[in-house]
Amino acid sequence: MSISNITRRFLTCLDKLVEEGKCKSRRHFALTVGYHPQGISEMIGERRDVPMEIIEKAVSLYSINPRFLFSGKGAHFIEESATDSFNVKNLMIVCDQKGDERIVHVPYPAQAGYGKLLDDPVYIQDLPTYQLPDPQFKSGSYRSFEIYGSSMQPTFRSNDIVIAAFIEPRYWEQAIKSNQLYIIVTHEEVVIKRVINHVKSEKVIECVSDNPEFDPYTIPVQNIIEVWKVRMKLTTYLEAPSHDDQHSRISDQLDAQQKMLENLQTQISRQSIKA
């Protein structure tokens, strides 16, 4: 079998990625795009052409120039300045045998090293993965994270799980919506916060906790590795509201009504005196 010119150019780009240190090896590349390493070997042996879905992921993750792949014209890679001003990180994904992407789950114990090990394919491959039947999870890249701590109560409790969609760095300025929920990943931590977007004006993201006992703080964009938009919550907390909570709400309502009556009586008394 004779491979296409597109495949030959693709292999040229792959060799350049390895030579320039942007990718550790051909096997590392295959793992990052969710492809079997044997498939790369078959391309090199001229027994297989590069699949279109692998081209799409290579363009997205490694900025391979599609114009060069399909026409042989232009640079091998899209210049970083033409895409975005943030550090582009390769998102490693895990696919099943059909090539469908699976959701990678990051338990709380694994989050301690998550920001430092994102480029390690073994670390990502060892994390639990799964798929959901909902059509919204059939396109895009999703990851789930286990919640720990009380900073986001009552919205989230410890051991809740959130499923979140990946946002590419080039879209942070427009796609991150203020007062919505995001997973923010740095080298030091993984946090879930309600954020205020100051990317354009101040090059920071302000993180706000739903629990008012925790103060807001900012994270410089240059320190952020990944941003994930929270899409769904999974929880085992199924307890009904306690009677104490109900009584407390009723008591608050009665107090408010009592204050309204007192204010009304005061106003009536003042009007009577004036009359």
Structure keywords:
single chain, alpha+beta, 10-stranded mixed sheet, 34% helix
Q: Could you characterize what this model shows?
A:
It is built from nine helices and ten strands. With 275 residues, it is an alpha+beta fold. Strands 1, 2, 3, 4, 5, 6, 7, 8, 9 and 10 form a ten-stranded mixed β-sheet that branches. Strand 6 (180-186) and strand 7 (190-198) form a beta hairpin.
Topology:
Blueprint: H1 5-19, H2 26-32, H3 37-44, H4 52-62, H5 66-71, E1 94-95, E2 101-106, H6 121-126, E3 129-130, E4 142-146, E5 161-167, H7 172-175, E6 180-186, E7 190-198, H8 199-202, E8 204-208, E9 217-220, E10 224-234, H9 243-274
Stretches where pLDDT falls below 50 for ≥5 residues?
80-85
**SS-based class:** alpha+beta
Let me know the number of strands: 10
Q: Counting H and I runs of at least 4 residues, what is the number of helices?
A: 9
Average pLDDT: 86
Q: How large is the radius of gyration?
A: 26 Å
Major sheet characteristics: 10 strands, mixed
**Morphology call:** elongated
Give the end-to-end Cα distance, rounded to a whole number of Å: 105 Å
Q: In percent terms, what proportion of residues is strand?
A: 15-25%
